[in-house]
Amino acid sequence: MGRKALWAMGVAWAMALAGAASATDPERPVPSAADFGARPILINPVLSPNGAIVASEARRLDKQVIMLADLDPTKPDGTHIVALPENFDIRWVRWAGNDKILVSVLGTTKFYGVDLPITRLMLIDAHSSATHYVGLKEQGIFGDDVLYVDPAGAYLLLSTQSSIFDPPAVYRIDLASFQPERIVKAQGGVWNWYADDKGVVRTGVGGEGKKWWVLYRDRADQEFERTRRREYDEDDIGVDKFLPLGGSDTGYAMAAGKSGRFGLYKYDFRNDVIGEQVYENPEVDIDDFDLKDGKLTAVYFTNDRPQVEWFDPELKKLQARLDRALPGHANRVISRSADNMRLLILSASADDPGTIYLYDRRTNELSPFAGLYQPLIGKRLAPMEPIRYQARDGLEIRGYLTLPPGRGDRNLPLVVMPHGGPFVRDSWGYDPQVQYLASKGYAVLQPNYRGSTGFGRSFVEKGSGQFGRGMQDDVDDGVKWLAGKGTVDAKRVCIMGASYGGYAAMLAAARNPELYRCAISFAGLSDVPAQLRYDRKSFTASRYFRNWRDRVRGDKDFELDSISPLRMAEKMTVPILIAHGTKDSTVPVAQSQKMHDALLKLKRPHEFVLYKDEGHGFGDPANATDFLNRVGKFLDAHNPAGS
User: Which of 202-211, 364-373, 615-624 has the lowest mean pLDDT?
Assistant: First the structure.
């Protein structure tokens, strides 16, 4: 696809948005399952430092590629595609100077007959499209932990293992010769290294058992000194991210303060002390922060909607102008040139999957660059509204409700969709599965049950020992709340989810058949003890706590089989649709296969489908479309929406 075609699609998308009264306009056509199964044209586009080229993950012939779009309007076709090795998934894309693109890829390797995920780093020449591997000849699991990239693109600092058994060392890798030079040796127990904004590795965080410590040095020619060893303390302030500043003993840290919410703090590295609070949101954790030239520019957080707090006064003014020009949308600056004169802006909402705009501060022009989902241009979508309700013990649960367009707000059929994780959260924005269900006439509830992240440490801690228990109650209570209000018909409710959400759907089919007419699980787990044996970090909420294996169980004498759907198969009387990817390395396909086998033996009503070569989600649009069609037919049969 050429740059002009990409640009034209962005213009068409923007015109479609401007020309229609609303995304819920009944005159708009209803999207198909294939429309919702489509992948976005671009994923996480980034500007080169000089603002001349956009690099982005994209798809071509159902394969992941890197797209490079030259923004020079005098070039007839400034877009070209670079293919990457197969059997790898793209994790992120960033620039190294103006001529090189770094790409993190995720693959798998065999280790004693077991598939393990591995990350690797590739480099693409922006002009020749030549691709190079960046790293050691022999590496362990993690090969994409980039600590620093030289602004001119001459070199980078990479923290990586020399084997699967060793902690990482730090290497300076020349990006012309690709030769590595070890600059920080591996140290026992130290798995995280941090460089300052000048490219000097200043600190490392180590741990062993219940002990942890920080290593620190002032300059590159000094040895690291260890701070006091201490025990992990559940009442201690947890640090999520460090950033030392060059030429100073201080820097920044994202940490949980006295309120239990993660905020931004000054950090004294020499004395290993958290200093003054720079920013804390009164309701939610911060997600990240951004510095430029050693100065704080922004803090990002998600309340009911994604938001940003700018510390740069010019960008704060720009944000206000964007929000006035594109109301009802989350408008996020996603990439900037080094001089801040060119910016890429993503404007999106729940009923608008998004437009990428290019803003030129020199000319004050805001131009559409690409509409992310071409098949949805001009078609009808549903708005999503933040909601809050009380669980049975009085705890406030936050979530989102999407109502089907044109169906009113009374006695609707419902699909409740608990999120995966479980220690993540749902957020406001476009969700193809939610929108597909709404297009078929269903209300969709997405509860952020106890244990969901983003709402402070206390809320996460309330999920301790509540896996499949209090978490499940919160989901059920959301259904009862909507039924009590008259919004939904209590006799027409189905539950659907993926990963932990798939587990919750399977559990609901056995635990509460009186509440749900059917259940749908994608990549769900059926055997909790087996999943914990497979990967003890499966349910990690490492930002808040480090012992989630125990926290999943709760009471040490609690029998995990009692919350495993596999052990409750004989209680499953409602129809269930079970689907799984054959190459899922997060939740093994055996978790669904064993559930299918048990239901088959008991002759319980269910459907079962495996998606070849898919992982813990859908990469192939054809498979995503097939799954939505199966969901639609399953709901038509067991929980019809009616007219």
Answer: 202-211
| Residue range 181-197: mean pLDDT, rounded | 93
Written as six digits, the tokens of 631 are: 């969901």
Residue 43's DSSP bridge partners are: 57
CATH assignment of 384-638, among 3.40.50.720, 3.40.50.1820, 3.40.1550.10, 3.40.50.300: 3.40.50.1820
**What is the Cα–Cα distance from 2 to 4, expressed in whole angstroms?**
5
Residues in Cβ contact with 74 at an 8 Å cutoff, skipping those fewer than 6 apart: none
List Cβ<8 Å contacts ≥24 apart for 258-262.
259/456, 260/456, 260/457, 260/458, 261/285, 261/456, 261/457, 262/286, 262/456, 262/457, 262/543
Average per-residue pLDDT for the chain: 89
Give the Cα separation of 29 and 168 in Å (integer). Answer: 54
| Integer Cα distance of 482 and 449 in angstroms | 15
Residue closest to 414 by CA, chosen among 316, 274, 515: 515
Greater pLDDT, 478 or 116: 478
Q: How far apart are CA 313 and CA 331, in angstroms?
A: 17
Decide if pLDDT at 197 tops 70: yes
Token representation of residue 433? 């599965």
What is the C-alpha R_g of the chain?
Answer: 25
Residue 20 one-letter amino acid: A
Q: What CA–CA distances, in Å, run from 356 to 70, 346, 352, 445? A: 15, 5, 12, 28
Single out the residue of 588, 591, 611, 594 nearest to residue 116, CA to CA: 588
Half-sphere exposure of residue 426, counting CA atoms within 13 Å on the CB side? 32
Q: Name the residue ranges covered by the structural domains of the chain.
A: 384-638
Peptide bond into 422 cis (omega under 30): yes
Question: What does the alpha-carbon distance between residue 456 and residue 261 come to, in Å, rounded to a whole number?
Answer: 4
Q: Where are the beta strands (DSSP E) in 71-200?
A: 79-83, 89-96, 100-111, 114-125, 131-134, 145-149, 155-160, 169-174, 180-184, 190-195
Q: Measured between alpha carbons, how far is 310 from 295 in angstroms, rounded to an integer? A: 12
